[in-house]
Amino acid sequence: MAAPLATLRLQLHRDFNFASxxxxxxxxxxxxxxxxxxSPITTAMPASPDGYxxxxxxxxxPELGGETGLRRLVRCLRQREMGxxxxxxxxxxxxxxxxxxxxxxxxxxxxxxxRAAFFDIDWDSPLTGQGKVLAPFLNASYGETLANGELRLVxxxxxxxxxxxYSGHRYPLNAASLxxxxxxxxxxxxxxxxxxxxxxxxxxxCAAVRAQACEIAYGRCRDHFEGEGGRTTLEGLLAQxxxxxxxxxxxxxxxxxxxxxxxxxxxxxxxxINWRRCFGAFHLAALSVERDxxxxxxxxxxxxxxxxxxxxxxxxxxIDGLTDPAxxxxxxxxxxxxxxxxRPAGAPNGRPWLVAEKILTDGERLRxxxxxxxxxxYDFMNEVAGVLHDPKGVPALRNGWHQWLxxxxxxxxxxxxxxxxxxxxxxxxxxxLDAATRALHALACLDHRSRDxxxxxxxxxxxxxxxxxPQYRIYADRRGHSPLDAAVFAQALAAARSTLRQVDHAxxxxxxxxxxxxxxxxxxxxxxxxxxxxLLTSPVSAAAFEDRASYHLGLLLSRNEVxxxxxxxxxxxxxxxxxxxxRRQHTPLGMLTLATHDHKCGADVRARLAVLSExxxxxxxxxxxxxxxxxxxxxxxxxxxxxxxxxxxxFYQTLLGAWPADLEREGDPALIEFAGRIGAWQQKAEHEGxxxxxxxxxxxxxxxxxxxFRHAVLASGSRFLGEIIAMVxxxxxxxxxxxxxxxxxxxxxxxxxxxxxxxxxxxxxxVGPDSRRPIDYPPRIAALAxxxxxxxxxxxxxxRRNWRDxxxxxxxxxxxxxxxxxxxxxxxQGNYQPxxxxxxxxERVLAFLRQAxxxxxxxxxxxxxxxxxxxxxxxxxxxxxxADTAVQIPAGILPLNCTDVVSGLALRLEKEWLNVAxxxxxxxxxxxxxxxxxxxxxxxxxx
Length: 943
Fold this sequence. Notes:
Elements: E1 7-10, H1 18-22, H2 25-31, E2 35-38, E3 42-44, E4 54-60, H3 66-79, E5 83-88, E6 92-94, H4 101-109, E7 133-138, H5 142-147, E8 152-156, E9 161-166, E10 169-172, H6 175-185, H7 188-201, H8 207-225, H9 228-240, H10 246-257, E11 261-265, H11 269-272, E12 277-278, E13 281-286, H12 292-307, E14 313-316, H13 325-339, E15 353-356, E16 374-375, H14 378-387, H15 394-405, H16 413-428, H17 430-445, H18 455-467, H19 483-499, H20 505-516, H21 524-548, H22 573-586, E17 591-593, H23 603-612, H24 616-629, E18 635-637, E19 640-642, H25 645-658, H26 670-689, H27 700-713, H28 719-748, E20 752-756, H29 777-787, H30 793-801, H31 807-822, H32 824-829, E21 831-834, E22 837-838, E23 845-852, E24 855-862, E25 886-888, E26 896-900, E27 906-909, E28 913-915, H33 916-919, E29 926-930, H34 937-942
Parallel strand pairs: 1-2, 1-20, 2-5, 5-14, 7-11, 14-15, 15-16, 17-20
Antiparallel strand pairs: 3-4, 6-13, 8-9, 9-10, 12-13, 18-19, 21-23, 22-25, 23-24, 24-29, 25-28, 26-27, 26-29
């Protein structure tokens, strides 16, 4: 149990907590899951929907049941011999109010706080003001918010604190301003309170002692203000700062100006923020976890839980948001390994399992020196989707897209991505761009040979380098850069040189020298500049690709997934096998996923949309008809039609892809609920893609017009509803075959499969929060109870005929998980060998062999199945459709008695070439297990 055999991802929140999970452990254990894999369990903002808005890393979230609830959950897991993996957020925390005590202390004590170094803050920013933190948490401008009386001086019980209140949030007052306020009271008690804070601030050498003395001073405030005589004083103090009068507003403004922070509109964050954010979100502050003290403090809970045997592995959130991912991962691995000896006897004592959320671009591989077991599997998800798409459909899809959009269409995804990166960088990350430029400019000023390179020249250079950066980032540290980093930077350098004016080439060369030039260990100034650059490219890439560009190019949305490259529409079978072979060699224990809490659309939505690549010309013609028929429903706005043609095309795709397989009647009440989900998707797609709204400001007129359009198109009795239902009915069986193919690949390819909550049935989910909807568990539990022990052909025929209810998919997953549980070495360590195919439909088959010791597993699956399934009403391919298509079985394992672990069909393989039709008799898939053959010595070595 040290390394998971199969994980289950669950999204926790206050309405689905540890106690809720305890009630599901038997179900998931019976399904075959070895480890639960939970969303973050540390204390987050109240009513957090996902746990990522962490405010306290030292406590298990009380809304989930706290540590008591966690311990009960682990006891239940151990009773079923299951383990626990948790998602951790090491690189950022939620800030903005008083919930995050570390951030609150920074706002209260400024750069002298012990916690000031916990966050990546530029205290000397020329825009924010010396020693101040920009606090861009106001919904309107500062002046408007002050004038409207939304900022107020309040007294908080029982802490005895005077604070600034805004929209449910609280902001501290520093001691210097309190000393002035209390001195101004002019009484002996006022002077005594002022002296208490002055004495506290005299502890200049120890921030902790100073903070403790301040707490004592606050206690004296409480004693005074809550006494009979002090109430009058307090009421007078608050009245003097009442913003309802001009005088009160002036005093309140003066008080705010004295603080270590500057409250401002959220609109200012992109341009002037002086602390590093995560994903460009103004409420997520980056942690300086590369510091040993921050690392130990922020990870103390995880280390204790691991040492006590409560958790068995970690998933690391957005690792590219860390200053030094390699150093962090090695340190984490070392600390957990040191703690393994402390774990109790009942907990697994093997190597702790570590995976990280990392987007690997085409050709990129996880760095081995990070000492991770692998990524969270976006690369696998991309390759599985890619191999199910037909490259022959690209010309028709691309021509249709260009015909619909005309001059607005980009020639390819790369062009769209470059536009998105430039827009995101200059609009959403302007402050971060300026910070990186200032770091470079400071370097330039240190050397007489470069001091004439201007700030703006360096800024122009940085823009082009970031726009054309081919990966999320590079990973240079104080020792310098690796050859891999140098090669990646060289690509960006060449592209930037081709777009910059000649006059800026000298600045470009200088920047290149600083970034990846030869030399000794990096000096502090150069390291700062490099760090700013590396931490700029990764969030820009994420925002540009996953948000904007993914909602701008609509050939097929099934290729616009997180971690995918829409510019590479399809993968060949050979490419897919190569990806699996690399994972088998380098990260055999890496996670494999088909669905996540962050996906754009569910796995089975992608599988259905992939079918359209096999009928591209027909699909384009259908879109043409719908665009014409629905033209009267569009609204004319000042900026153009609503919805735009791009939005409308993607709307039709999403409807078709996510349409529930069992929704086959226009009058079905489920249509209302589905239409609401589509509406939520539509709004998020428009806002994230920034197609209409500027920045984070939605275009209300556009939103209303799109809603009106959607209601008209989906009106009961409309011709369109009948057409969309007919098309779903036509392609759904082939889509279900795709869904089964990717399911089998998920559980038989090299790696550790992760099942996302509820997706053991068909997954018609869309982008979050739709992907995090509550799961209807009773039907799943009942279905599993029926499938256990079933082997006969009649049962599989019944499942196949009633495939729309999802039980067929669950049954396949159950069988494959039982195989993993019973034959772990075969699936976790077995080698991987593609099998040869021949015949008229050889390109429509995926086949490979897994071997370990004297065991083997033959996997034969269909792909691109639509032409093989004319008039099909269920996921089945007639044997005659395969014609002469055959798969070659390696001679060294023949003869072989084997059993299809899914359908139960027993076979004896004696011929080198087997007809695919004979192997796919009961189901459109074959997973054949055998162990009664003799291998040659050469094959033993290979295995």
